[in-house]
Task: structure prediction
Amino acid sequence: MPDTQLMDKLVSLAKRRGFIFQSSEIYGGVGSVWDYGPLGVELKKNLKERWWRSMVYERDDIEGLDAAILMHPRVWEASGHVEGFTDPLVDCRTCKARFRADQLDQGQCPQKPSKKPGEAEQCNLTEPRMFNLMFRTFMGPVEDDASVVYLRPETAQGIYVNYLNVMQAARQKPPFGIAQIGKAFRNEITPGNFIFRTREFEQMEMQFFVKPGEDERWFEEWKERRMQWHRDVGITPDKLRFHEHASEELAHYAKKAFDIEYEFPFGWQEFEGIHNRTDFDLKRHMEYSGKKLEYVDTATKERYVPYIIETSLGADRLALVVLVDAYREEEVEGEQRVVLGLKPAIAPIKAGVFPLVKKDGMPEVAQRICDDLRSRFPIFYDDGGSIGRRYRRQDEAGTPFGITVDGQTLEDQTVTVRDRDSLVQERVSADRLVGYLEERLTS
Ligand code: ATP
Result:
């Protein structure tokens, strides 16, 4: 049974605390496009940086890239997107709603009593027709067929068309990878579930180029590494699993594909894909561009078109996984509280700083502490309302530490540091705070 209540609570918390807002809300919103507020932008940035660090900085065989969103239109012919990046669309003649024909079981008819599309008597679905998910626009002042360009539906192609440039400039050779984080756009028929399926989203993709024959070993390696990465972000291991694509599910380019799935309140769903794309993409680009995209080993004279192992993760979908997984309601000190138990390393704000009362010089001392910490971590000063309420606000924001300046601070320059999860309060000397927090924020 989908826990729609949990999703509703999360959407409301995300808005209240400034994680995620609906795009163009004052105009009634725009379908399945979302904006990240002050806390959301930090959360997503932390996730992206963590991914980038593990892919690019911690390895000497992966290089970074930031390719443009707009590409030569032939790229999308070569990749198969112009012809085949389609979903089957059905319309209901009665209620005018649209559904994906292959996902009717996940759809919801807008008529009451609510049923799945096609199940109610009055449902009158059309035959499915194929709908291309790419957004089209025009390059230059003339809006004709010759000036059609697409907003990229995946970041991968920017890597493939640059693979020789990167390999030569960075003096790499297979096995090596290229990592990229960037926006992708898909005109999804049935977007939804908050930021799970949106029309504009960010992908974190890494394409690993290997010698044919070594692809299966590398596929296994990346599959395991990516799963471990998610466990290290702090996602509950029991809510993670692999789903192997059966042969009829495989994309046209893939020899093997595994999804990493998370158990969302609306069921198990993919949030990262690991694909063995073979030499399909490079061979197609060779054919369409007329350029040789082989690797030539100068020592052995061996030449081949590399196979590609892809790891493709949605930054927004990962943010949703992390938020859902961190959300908990519990009773502490006789009161209900909502907490986002985010790992300190990915929490948007690292510490809240609170003067216990707004007098006796406590706000000034707290401000000075803020000034000391501000250049190192995102922190938040709050002197509004009871100390309990201020703690609760930061619990909801996922802030791991609460620093309180009280009467004793004025005597011995120590503050209390409250741990969001254990609620244990430790007295720490104000001049040791930076080191104290640094130690605890790395995990
Ligand atoms: P789906 O079957 O859910 O449409 P897909 O198999 O087409 O997804 P891929 O093309 O493999 O997805 O994309 C890789 C990753 O990009 C997905 O695992 C997901 O995290 C992210 N992603 C894809 N489409 C969207 C979308 N519309 N909104 C948000 N994230 C997306």
Summary: Residues 147 and 222 are 39 Å apart (CA to CA). The mean pLDDT is 94. The longest strand covers residues 267-278. The pocket of adenosine-5'-triphosphate is lined by residues 154, 186, 188, 197-198, 201, 203, 270-273, 312-314, 316-317 (CB under 6 Å).
